[in-house]
Amino acid sequence: MRALISGSVPPNSGQSWQRNMLLFLLLACFVSFVMFGTQLPRRLSIQSCILNSHGDSMTYRFINYTPSILEEAWYRNRGLYIDNASRICSDLDTHAQELASWVSFNTNHLKNNTYDEKLWSGVNDVFSKFVYEKSNGETFTRIIEPLVGHFRHPYALPHCKPMSAEAVNVQDRSYVAFGGLKPLDNDVFFSGKHYLFDLGTADFPTSLGYLIATYAKIGVEFDRIWAWESTPRPNYWDSVPSEVQGKLHFYNKGISSDIDAQSHPLQILSKFYQPGDYVVFKLDIDNSELEMSVMKEIMEDEHLQHIISELMFEMHYDSPDMERYFGKPNMSYIDVLETFRSCRQKGIFLHYWP
Predict the structure, then answer these.
(1) Contact, 182 vs 152, CB < 8 A?
(2) Nearest 5 degrees, angle CA 276-CA 264-CA 3?
(3) What's the CA dihedral at 339, 215, 134, 275 to 10 degrees?
(4) Eight-class DSSP state of 61
(5) pLDDT digits (tens, 9 = 90+) for 178-197
């Protein structure tokens, strides 16, 4: 979704920035080949040059991330949440109306998979937006849920939700604005293959089964799926439908700690990705060190930011409200808020996974 050098080309003539970017990328590929030959640094490979100079990076580019009014108000008050966890809960109650609009929109959008102008126009104050520019100069947006509360469903904690709302399961995922595009627009902007990477897949119904069914509701059918799970799952395949078995690569082991290993998910992704592909990447392996190594790589590698269309990550943090689930990790609530906001500002379409 993100061009190789986002923001370096002024948003004037679409043809002009398309032509200039292509010339620059071809020159960069040529210079890197002359200087390094076949021993290119991993971040500047011939493959990545070719991929980023192909049609999809020239069709549209990331312009900016625009936090919603709700998210911006929450971010301005972030200092109040450092030593006062109860303030998070009271502020959720203050924004009960906006949260209800958020939950209602997601429910109707996933249930009906139809375009309703009234439904979409009512989310402007609640949902944050990613703005992109097409090669013809036109812009389009993808919506994403705001970074507020404990980053998950706003009704997920019985003691920390609007008083008027009914509590949901702590792992309820219906708050996620999957895709962020209007129904059927995925095929317009992503005309290639659809890939799903699930790091920390658990049993099939709890993760992959849910994701496959949910994306089908917004018109996305995955062509190939890769999944990793470190805990033994001897009966994993028993619950995998026959129509999924032929496209699923399941590894009942943890991911490698070596980012450069050919078996690492990021290397597999780079190998299979072609311009126009839609890539969903979920990271929830409950190993903070490994998770952060993957996130660090994505945050520092503009090529990965470009080819991962949608990223989901559960980042644990120290909070009295979440201690029964997370323990007491080194990360703070503010660390998570700043990390996710920074990623989104880089153009990474990042959800908090519950």
Answers:
(1) no
(2) 30
(3) 90
(4) E
(5) 988 876 666 667 789 999 99
Q: Most confidently modeled of 18-32, 152-166, 178-192?
A: 152-166
Distance CA 109, CA 226 (A): 27
96-112 and 208-217 helices cross at what angle (nearest 10)?
Answer: 80
Which stretch of DSSP H or E encloses residue 295? helix 288-300
333-350 b/e (C-beta count within 10 Å ≥ 16 → b): beebbebbbebbebbbbb
Apex 121 CA angle, 119 and 123, nearest 5: 80
* CA-based R_g, the chain, Å: 21
- What are 216-234's pLDDT values in tens digits? 988 899 999 999 999 999 9
As a whole number of angstroms, the distance between CA 200 and CA 316 comes to 15
Cα separation of 150 and 161, whole Å? 10
**311-338: pLDDT as tens digits:** 999 999 999 999 999 999 999 999 999 9
Q: What is the DSSP letter of 115?
A: -
For the CA atoms of 48, 49, 50, 54, what is the dihedral angle to 10 degrees? 100
d(CA 339, CA 195) in angstroms, rounded, equals: 25
Residue from 139, 147, 175 nearest 64 by CA: 139
Strands (E), 33-103: 60-66
In this predicted structure, what is the pLDDT of residue 1? 36
Q: Using an 8 Å Cβ cutoff, are 257 and 290 in contact?
A: yes
Q: Which residues does 172 contact at the CB level (< 8 Å), separation at least 6?
A: 152, 153, 155, 156, 354
CB 234, CB 309: distance < 8 Å: no
